[in-house]
Amino acid sequence: MIRHIEFANIFNFRDVGGYAAHDGRTVQWQRLYRADALGWLAGDDLRTFRELRVRTVIDLRHAYEVEKGGRVPDAEGQSYQNLPIEGRRWDVTVYDEKSGVGRYLADRYLETTEDGVENLRTALETIARADNAPVVIHCAAGKDRTGVLAALVLSLVGVGEDDIVADYALTGLATERFVASWRSRHPDAPMWPGFGLAPAEAMRLFLGDLTARHGSIETYVTQVLNISPATVSELRGHLLTEPDSEG
Known about the structure:
Layout (H helix, E strand, L loop, with lengths): L13 E2 L10 E2 L4 E4 L7 H9 L4 E4 L3 H7 L9 E4 L18 H15 L1 H12 L6 E4 L6 H12 L4 H9 L5 H11 L14 H15 L2 H8 L4 H11 E2 L6
Parallel strand pairs: 3-6, 4-5, 4-6
Antiparallel strand pairs: 1-3, 2-7
Helix pairs in contact: 3-8, 4-10, 5-6, 6-8
């Protein structure tokens, strides 16, 4: 199967399938995708997207971002949810070069787990329902807010930390194109040193911090987000498949 799906104007669209879970099963392909901003879909890109037969789009951006950048084009039978999960705006002036980009990003991701509780719950409950699949989760670059939600999903279904970190870091393959596109639209805007970067350290630090604070990722999900054990089981039931039945 193909993880990275090529688009002309979307740089970070990929399938989250194929990762091994602790119990020997794997994450099914073509059930959950992660992406950058889908407002750029048009022409051949839009045709490619519609061939995926996506049923549900979860847009994690703020409403003002959606208004400014556009949302995924309407499609018959497709559900769209705008679920912003970021509360505090990023203050890049507090970035400490000595601590590094990974530490700065991990701190922002932990804030998201504090500020985005209600919409993170709704997003996970949406992804858990089999009849909503295939689902695409996305934000602007497809790495920060999308990275947090994807990490929660993968952790819940039993994917190991190394694979969760590696999946997050795959955004690095899109960084050059993403930065070039942003620069073409904002030629005079300042850019902080971590713009567009997705260092593996950021996700590893975030997962460690969340675990240290709550005991485990699943405890955070069940006790803070109040996701029921039945919903967790439903999520695993439709996202995971036996290795010998994977198609």
